[in-house]
Amino acid sequence: MPFQDLPDRLVEVRQRIDRAAARGGHGQAVRIIAVTKTHGPDAVEAALNAGLQDVGENRVQEALGKMAAVSSPVRWHLIGHLQRNKVKSAEGFSLIHSIDSLRLAETVNAHALSRGAVQPVLVQVNIVGEESKGGFSPAEVSAAADQLQGMRGIDVQGVMTMAPYDASPDILRRVFSGCRSARDELQRHGFSNARELSMGMSGDYEIAVEEGATLVRLGTVLFGERT
Ligand SMILES: *Cc1c(COP(=O)(O)O)cnc(C)c1O
Asked: Most buried of 29, 81, 102, 125, CB within 10 angstroms?
C-alpha cells in the first residue's frame, strides 16, 4: 500500500501542532492541508483515508488530473502561483491561496462574477521581500485592501505566506507574525471573513502554529521526500 505510514506520521504531526498551539496561545483551530504535488492520485486517496479533507496543489494542470481521478469529495487548495490565463481552469478550487497581485484578483473576480459565483481567496504576502516569491509587501496591504473592497466575486478569507527556505527561527517568527499583522489589517479594513492564516510547511509549521497559523500546508512530513 502506498503511503502506508501516513496515519502514523499524521498522529505525530497533530501532536506537534497541538503542543505548538498551546505554546503560542492564539487559541486558533489548525487545519492540515495535505500537499500532494508531484505525487499521483494515490496520495490524495491516502490523505482522505487518513481522515484529511483538504488537499493542496501548486499547479492547476497537475491538480485537474487528480480532480478527475479522485471521486470522493475533496477540498482542493491552490497554493502555487496562478497565471491569469489559467483562472478559468481554477474554478474547482475551494480556496485560492495565491492572490499575489491586483490584476490577478481582478481576473479571478471577473471570472467568478461571470459564472455567478463567489471565489474564496487568500491574499499572498511577502513579508521579507524575497525577489523569488510573489505577494504584497506589508506596506502594500492597506492600499490593496481598499482595491479589493469592491470586488464582489471574491471572498477574502485571510492571507498566505511562504517563509524563506532555511531561515533561522528568529526570521521565521518575524515572517509569520508579520503575516498575522497583515491578516489583522484586512480585518480592520472590513474583511470580516479574513480569519485564515495559511503559513507553515514541513520545515517550519510548528513556529507558524505558535504564531497563529490556521492552515498548515504539509507535503514532505506526510508523504516523504518528493523525487
Ligand atoms: C510544496 C509546497 C508546500 C509543502 O512543502 P513541504 O515542505 O513538502 O511540506 C507548501 N506550500 C507551498 C506553497 C508549496 O509549494
From this structure: 125
Dihedral over Cα of 207, 210, 215, 220: its sign = positive
Does the beta carbon of 33 sit less than 6 angstroms from any atom of ligand 1?
no
In 25-73, where does DSSP find H-type helix?
41-49, 60-69
CB 113, CB 158: distance < 8 Å: no
63 contacts: CB under 8 Å, gap ≥ 6 = 57, 76, 78, 92, 93
Q: How far, in Å, CA of 164 to CA of 180, rounded?
A: 16
Ligand 1 atom nearest to CA at 220: 8
Mean pLDDT of the chain: 97
Query: Is the beta carbon of 58 within 6 A of some atom in ligand 1?
Result: yes
Residue that is written with C-alpha cell 477540498 in the block: 75
- The answer to whether residue 1 scores a pLDDT higher than 90 is no
Look up residue 55 and give its three cell numbers: 488537499
Q: What value, to the nearest 5°, has the Cα angle with vertex 210 and ends 204 and 214?
A: 85
- Compute, in angstroms, the gap from residue 221 CA to the centroid of ligand 1: 10
114 falls in which pLDDT band (50, 70, 90)? very high
